[in-house]
Write a sequence for this structure.
């Protein structure tokens, strides 16, 4: 059985991660009733500094079906092709971030995105607090987000 593997992002992946982001981001925003805030990745990448982070993609048989962007302390983007939800890609990418990051990793989940909250809890993230403010990249919209954290020491003990 062929499995997904993670590899570093390559510039040739950009059209595919745009497709993945745009479809999955619309799902995310629908759950929060924020569809009007949608910005395609070809614009959002520059506005939100996507390439300031480390990027990995999940690939199988030459096809990229998910990607993640992160720093030593923050998971900032994680998107999976909607046709591949619940196949383990999100877990694979999240584990890759945990393996490559510092001792504690944070992330934010927009309120209303219950599937994402459940997923992150299932892989060891805990809710820290809730924050409200302008949506990064589209500041005309206000959002509430759940700040979550993963502590390597606590989760490996």
């Amino acid at each position: 059985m062929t499995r997904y593997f993670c590899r570093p992002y390559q510039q040739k992946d950009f059209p595919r991660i745009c497709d993945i982001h745009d479809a999955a981001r619309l799902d995310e925003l629908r759950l929060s009733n924020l569809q009007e805030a949608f910005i395609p990745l070809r614009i959002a990448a520059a506005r939100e500094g996507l390439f300031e982070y480390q990027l990995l993609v999940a690939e199988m048989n030459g096809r990229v079906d998910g990607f993640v962007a992160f720093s030593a302390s923050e998971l900032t983007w994680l998107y999976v092709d909607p046709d591949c939800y619940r196949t383990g890609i999100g877990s694979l990418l999240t584990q890759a971030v945990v393996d490559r990051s510092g001792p504690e990793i944070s992330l934010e989940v927009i309120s209303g995105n219950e599937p994402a909250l459940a997923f992150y809890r299932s892989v060891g993230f805990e809710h820290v607090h809730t924050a409200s403010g302008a949506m990064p990249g589209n500041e005309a919209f206000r959002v509430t987000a759940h700040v979550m954290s993963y502590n390597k020491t606590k989760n490996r003990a």
Observations:
- Residues 128 and 135 are 19 Å apart (CA to CA).
- The first helix runs from residue 14 to 31.
